[in-house]
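Obj: model holo form, ligand = flavin-adenine dinucleotide.
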Amino acid sequence: MDFKLNDEQRLIRKAARDFATKELAPNAREWEESHTFSREVFDKMGRLDFTGLYIPEEHGGTEVGRLTAALIFEELAKGCFATAVYMSVHNMVVNLIYQYGNEDQRRRFVKPLAMGEKLGAYSLTEADAGSDAANLTCMAVKVDGGYIVNGTKLYVTSGGVADLYVVMVRTDEAQKQKGISAIVVEKGTPGFSFGPYEPKMGLNASPTTELHFQDCFIPDSDRIGEEGRGFNMALSALNGGRVGIGACAVGLAQQAFDYALNYAQKRVQFGRPIVSFQGLQFLIADLAAEIEASRLMIYRAASLMDLGEQCALEAAMGKRFATDMAMRVTTEAVQILGGYGYMRSYPVEMYMRSAKIAQIFEGTNQVQRIVIARELTKTKGGKRPDLY
Ligand SMILES: Cc1cc2nc3c(=O)[nH]c(=O)nc-3n(C[C@H](O)[C@H](O)[C@H](O)COP(=O)(O)OP(=O)(O)OC[C@H]3O[C@@H](n4cnc5c(N)ncnc54)[C@H](O)[C@@H]3O)c2cc1C
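Output (holo structure tokens):
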């Protein structure tokens, strides 16, 4: 077992770190307050090859793999959590189309997404289909040459600003999971529109909107894979997505921790820097260990994906652990700064608000526990390989 990154991974991580330091961190607060999504920043990340991380070169990507992608998301999240999150979602979307799409769809959709010319979004959730995602009702009725889609999707990351949307729709009302199909919808398609930008507790540099479909025609050629296979695709994509979100959570927590530690070394009370009090030293020691444990869990889940191994268990455990950790670390960072931590003139309250969403999306942490327990109690499907 080798815990060392190779030269390429170190170089790519440095590029992401430099970008986050120069382009993201100085703007993150302003974007959050003004609810600004910066297309220019996305374009720059395209030029840095961060937009097709799992996609082979002939289809416009760099195929650096999951572990390297985790390093990138971790670094981006240190600069701006919202940006890291939508990049993780974008890469998940490109890969879903690449994995399940045909050659024509790879040419039309994957290449421009992977090259950073287009931004991708993923739409599964509806008002009555959150954790119970298979309950979705957005209908795609079969007509000659395609489908007529009607319905509303909820809470779409990059809604309104993305160019391509992978949308899970119901093509068969008689079936639950097997009645769901995946379609790609391009911004500007007649009958396809967006709800208003949802103001949120945090993550406001990443727009979240509804998608509205009103008699929207989608050709057969824009359905991904076979009819009725969409739910499997949605869940399989989320496995990787959870590793990405876990990596974002590690970066966010590290940023909050570094800020709080630096503060504690400078802040003097009772005539001494507050970091010299054992009450804070023990806290700092625990937080550092929890960040490191989360990082290793995420890197391991990512490495399993790179090896082509099963990883539903590791991805769910990593997402659950890393995002709960990020909530704790960011909350404690506010505590370490005391009253200053509660003020908007310091960044830690924003980190704390950012962390909350990571426990909720891409499967709430309760849902992760369901996945973990299900994987651990599986009786069919064979034994998991012994990887240690
Ligand atoms: C900022 C933001 C961005 C998002 N981006 C996207 C996106 O890009 N694409 C997309 O499709 N969706 C997106 N979502 C939706 C997100 O994935 C859902 O909100 C999430 O899956 C939870 O669904 P819900 O909100 O309906 O909560 P519910 O499913 O109603 O859950 C409510 C509570 O009940 C708990 N619960 C539910 N079922 C169980 C159970 N069986 N056992 C124990 N506890 C349970 C949950 O854990 C939660 O605590 C986004 C949401 C937000 C807030």
